[in-house]
Amino acid sequence: MHAEAGSTLFSRGRNLETALGLRRVFLKFEGSNPTGTQKDRIARHCYDEAHAKGFDTITVATCGNFGASVAWACSHNGIRPTVFVPSDYHTPRIVEMETLGARIIRVPGDYEDAVAASRMAAREHGWYDANPGSDAQWDIARRGYGRIAHEIVQDLGGMPDTVSVAVGNGTTLAAIFEGFREAARERGLHALPRMIAASTPRGNPIIKSWKAGLKECMDLRPEEIRETTVNEPLVNWHSFDGQRALDAIYASNGYAAYATDAEMRRLTALTRSLEGINVMTASTASLVGLSKAAKAGLVGEGLHVAVLTGRHHEKPRLRASDLARSHFPPPIS
Of the candidates 79, 113, 133, which is a domain's last residue? Predict the structure, then answer.
């Protein structure tokens, strides 16, 4: 029987507050889902829909996390996951996917090329297409990721003032914002949180479009992309739900920020050391974005939430210089 996704860990990041320059920071840790990411929430919805419609195969392109989630959702249930992965990506989750029964197909090119190959295979073979970008998958994402907002409101007893999310395709941020809208209607509330998007420099159309003051999410040029082992989960030249995410930022009077690899590594080390949470490095872009919004004077008093994910990988050693820059004393051993 499957472990359930959702109802994830929600805690106050008291030890991180000083490092971020904020009071009352809360951490929504999606790493407590079965495979360590929020994507488990929608992978099970995809499986349920594919099963109900009689599909025997689900296909998806991935940088790692969504593929692992789909493989988990399909395991021991009779539907074969076929996962397309860019040939040059370094995700350590390949072994995990294969262990869960997934067929891995390596695709020359980038993530967008893998999506195109996965979609073509779905059409040719009659497979269920779990890739983002369609209205059907947006509806699943809205329902699945929207629950994150409802859980935050339930745990806080009201609306937060700020919610920060690491973005790649923009799906999670956009769906969480829709979840807050739904929660506000249900509870008769009027205020909505300011949404903060954060991602890698030279690798995300949402951030670049917002910083340029554009209301339309414009693709990057593929040659602009600067991919590393740290930013792989975030980087793309076309965000499949980028317009929805950009609209959410503007509708909430939000903010967007870049998070460098060095900044994400530092926040990863601090979060693991000071809060004891084994976060995925790319997800700490949300903490970087929250800190930069505070430095810009856009957030201050109030309740602030950062959405994080986790993996069971190596734990980077926290250097003394990291603690010194945080203005927070080392934990007592």
Answer: 133
Q: What distance in Å separates the CA atoms of residue 183 and residue 181, rounded to the nearest whole number?
A: 5
- For 224-253, b where at least 16 C-beta lie within 10 A, e where not — what string? ebebeebbbbbbbbbbbbbbbbbbbbeebe
Residue 32: partners with Cβ closer than 8 Å, 6 or more residues away: 8, 9, 310
Q: What is the pTM of this model?
A: 0.91
Cβ partners under 8 Å of residue 50, min gap 6: 58, 79, 128, 130
pLDDT tens per residue across span 224-259: 999 898 999 999 999 999 999 999 999 999 999 999
Claim to verify: residue 294 and residue 148 sit in the same structural domain: yes
Taking residues 159-179, what's their average pLDDT? 98
Contacts of 258 (CB under 8 A, 6+ apart): 198, 199, 200, 201, 207
- Per-residue pLDDT at 313 exceeds 50: no
Residues 155 and 121 in one domain: no
Q: pLDDT digits over 316-327, tens only?
A: 333 333 333 333
Which CATH number belongs to the domain containing residue 63 in this structure? Answer: 3.40.50.1100
Distance CA 289, CA 72 (A): 30
Which residue range(s) make up the domain with 77?
Answer: 39-133
**Among 109, 238, 252, 98, residue whose Cα is nearest residue 173:** 252
Write out the two tokens for 58: 């689900």
Spell out the residues 6+ positions from residue 259 whose beta carbon is closer than 8 angstroms to its own.
166, 198, 199, 200, 201, 284, 285, 288, 289
Q: What is the pLDDT of residues 22-73, one digit of tens each?
A: 999 999 999 999 999 999 999 999 999 999 999 999 999 998 899 999 999 9
Number of structural domains found in the chain:
2
